[in-house]
## 1
Amino acid sequence: MIRFIAVRLLRAMITIFAVVTFAFVVLRMSGDPAQVMLGPDVPQEAVDAFRRSWGLDQPLWIQYLAYIKSIFTGDFGVSMRDKASALDLVLQRVPATLQLTLPALLLKLVFGIPAGVYAALHRQSFADRGVILLAVLGFTIPSFVMGLVLVLIFAVILGVLPSGGQDTWVHGILPTVTMSIGGIGILARFSRSAMIEVMGQPYIRTASAKGLKWRDVVWNHALPNAAVPIVTIVGFMVGSLIAGAVVVESIFSWPGIGRLLIVSVSNRDLAVVQCILLIIAAAMVVSNLVVDLLYGWLDPRLRSSAAH
Amino acid sequence: MDRASSNLVELRDLKVAFDGVQVLHGIDLNVGWGEAVGLVGESGCGKSVTWLAALGLLPGKASVTGSVRLDGQELAGGPREAFEQVRGGRIAMIFQDPSSSLNPVLRIGRQIVEALSLHRGLRGDPARREALRLLDMVGIPDARRRFDLYPHEFSGGQCQRLMIAMALAGEPDLLIADEPTTALDATIQAQILDLLIQLRAETGMATVFISHDLGAVSQVCERVCVMYAGRIVEEGSVAELFSEPRHPYTRGLFDAIPRIDGPRQRLIPIPGTVPNPKHLPEGCSFQPRCFRALEACRSERPALDTSADGRQLACFRPVQANEPAEPRTRVTEDMLL
């Protein structure tokens, strides 16, 4: 078990390292912070001075080594724009983002899984077809379209909900709903197919042949088996709790990480962008690790194959 | 026990259709108290479907008609609860693939205790003790230590023993064994057959043994029904059927088995394959593969009639006793289609 976790942790570190390196290279290849920060009509001496003060005049690999070294000491650099610690800037925004993504995750779980399971148990019924239709609509309509449609209906036409800002919890309703709809659709579909697959297995017939009530067959024998594929999807959703709100935060002018990321990228605010990407990667990797551990808990066959 | 009926189970005109395709064409079958009946036939002939239908275990898209009486009480067409009370408690069933018939994420002890609490109201320590006794009875060594293991930690043969233990938990009057040895090694097959025979002797429960293995059927059963394309075509005691098969299909099944005694002989396969239930041939379903088919066989279907000696047969031109096996050199193309 310890070996299992150690291997996964090592793999996680490598993943994060790859993300950090990739971000570093791409950001520096794709634009010059000095030009963006200072504007087009600045004398060359000012640009050179800016580059020198941020170390941008050094060869790329020296910059890279310095960056990696500072990360290991817990220093994520300073924002070129705000001259404040990049990590502090990012962490300040985390609560706002979680205010949207956590309730959205809850909505996904509460509506997506039961809808999918119900559809699977009533296959080919009216309800099943309805769930499939709504699920497909839910995850095929992009969130920026969905968000605008909801704004149009609830803010512009009905005038019952605010279209943007973060003043009260009411302001969070539209962005949260926008964000959850796609996930509800995805979870409903996955839960449905997982459940259909499990309900066709011989051990479900055994459980029925044993004389168990239908409800007990579903709860005690089918659901624990259907949980493995569902957990995979939920794990992915948990991993994107921090990253998942870029588009929606922009639509609803919600001051979370997503908006900070967009602003920082357009400003080439290197330290902030890298810090955000690192945190997103870490969140993904940690949730993947947790999912791997959950697999073992849910399915004893995986537990013993991991041990050997 | 009060017996309302002389037969434990009576199936009458049991028919099953999937999506409008008839796969079972009216099965009449009795199983006496404590009797061991074999159901023989090729894959897809409806052996398993018969009993899954009788227990209401077919998926919802299957339409089942006919009568299923258990100890005189009608089950067919009843509510789901009626079936749930019978399953496991009065009629238990074990299946072909034991390893995937046990729930992979539940400990085997729990799966057996579940049946015990369901049918005998046992919980806690008494349930555990009884489960251990059952595991002992079906020959799981070191049951105490392995009580909390998962199905994948047992071999196929042991999984079938576990399935049998679970089936015995409800102290059923009838055990339906649906090809219980098909997925197992030959030596393990023999052990499981011995176990079924021994348990029947100890408990007095009736057994329905579904198999395409005539040898296994002859060991376990007293009476055999041969099924073809969703119908029973011949029925009789094991001794009668084995010494003197009358239906050309039954005879064909025997001719296709290698013999240990006597001179080496070429096996005689039955030409062709089981017909598609969507396109059953006119007349007798077996007629396109039958080496004795007459003109009448192609237009009319022979009914299952009871002869003077109590055997049942559905054939216009039965095989006579001591008739030599007919080498069917003329395998025409329409036979293979």
Note: The mean pLDDT of chain A is 88.
## 2
Amino acid sequence: MRHDVTIVSNRQIAKATMEMKVRCPGVEVAPGTFFHIKTSGLLRRPLSVANVEGDEITFLYKVIGEGTTELAGKRVGDTLDVLGPLGNGFLLAQHGKRVVLVGGGIGVPPLYYVRRRLHEMGIETIAILGFDSKESVFYEEAFRELGETIITTVDGTHGELGFVTGPLARIQADVLFSCGPEAMLKAVAASPIPERYLSIENRMGCGIGACFACVCQAPDGYVKVCSDGPVFNVEEVLL
Amino acid sequence: MRLNVELPGLRLKNPIIPASGCFGFGEEFAKLYDLSILGGIMIKAATEESRFGNPTPRVAETAQGMLNAIGLQNPGVDAIIEEKLPFLSTFDTEIIANVAGSTPDEYVEVARRISADPTIKAIELNISCPNVKCGGMQFGTDPVMAAELTRLVKAASSKPVYVKLSPNVTSITDMARAVEAAGADGLTMINTLVGMRINIETGRPILANRIGGLSGPAIKPVAVRMVYEVAQAVDIPIIAMGGVRTVDDVLEFIYAGASAVAVGTANFENPYVCQEIIEALPARLDSLGIEHILDVRGKAYAQLVSRP
């Protein structure tokens, strides 16, 4: 489960947003799962998988603190100590159903990989992707290649003005997959779409379910985001 | 046989034990390696009823360390006995139950129930958790209260009792002497140091609980000093913890006077760390010319005493 991976690219793709590709052979990665990345800090950083092509895994990350700043400074050929894949991802068996993908900001990346996999299975998807502003938008073309894609920006500088909930209200779908900030997930969780799955973020310790750092309240107690999730049916969690 | 350690209630094949709260009930790590290689396992704290613990965020990184404020989340002692111990009993390693509570009665009840299970070989009395409002550290910062609680739990437990000491005290040797006099069979030390971090963009504490317990390499020198002092002040054995992540850290604590060593936060950085330390120990003993690991126990002060 622990791998020393080699960085094959690491570049900025939008405002404070980096795309890193690493070579990690012989690993089966389900969409929605994550890797726990070692930096010089004590705790690892959980990063969701944005894509897998052959033995290359793509991570997108926002440069926010010390760990992600350090990752942004990594060069091609550097190695990283990663644990993974960890957690449980999105249920891909959605044949005959219409799936809407709703992502916000740095919650967008795992939806790209799940869309690619669903596309390969012939399952139709619509994507609604929300960003702060034009300079924060990434992967728009890549998403468009896989189906209908609606972009929203909070300041209206690109796509529709406003939040993802605007276009979501007029979409008919059977299943919703979503990942993004907590406020967005709360709004999306209230959608009338019958089946809703949310990928939840939390500060993690171990990443494997042992330390109880990343728990989330649930109707019958709690769930651990890292090992029970990070993808949950909306019925399983209390946001 | 150069790593085995015999302590009250515990026959450790080596002195390496994952620390309580950093290893759950072993299930996650059992997927990574065979838990039977471990000297023992200190399982997550048990309270009488299930507890959810504190709101999140519960962890924050610090320089060479981390703060946590989990808040003793656990399924309750009966669920631990029924659902967790049967799995742990399948491994050839010594299981140590960490016992916590809000009142002396709760500590006594939890200790009585869990010590009766044959899988449990010793009790670790948790009077040092900084992250709960009632009980926890309040019993571990007053020597009179600590001694009284030790006496009560000792009377209720059918297994040896190791008292887990808090470093958040003026004199840890006074605490150690008090619980030794009250009948403690051993000590485990140290629990986390109370600390906090503030987000300077929001001006607010990072942890939802505001304060938490500092662990990791940052606290190791504090722990080594405390073990060194306490080992000279008491006659009961010490299981040491505080920032251990390498085989040399283990030896440092043994030199300071510990008989075994627990590994905590390092399990998050590297879930294979206990296995790696155990595998590295024999070669390191060879390179230092040490036959049995306990040959150097307390040597840090023994040498000073014998110096002319």
Note: The mean pLDDT of chain B is 95.
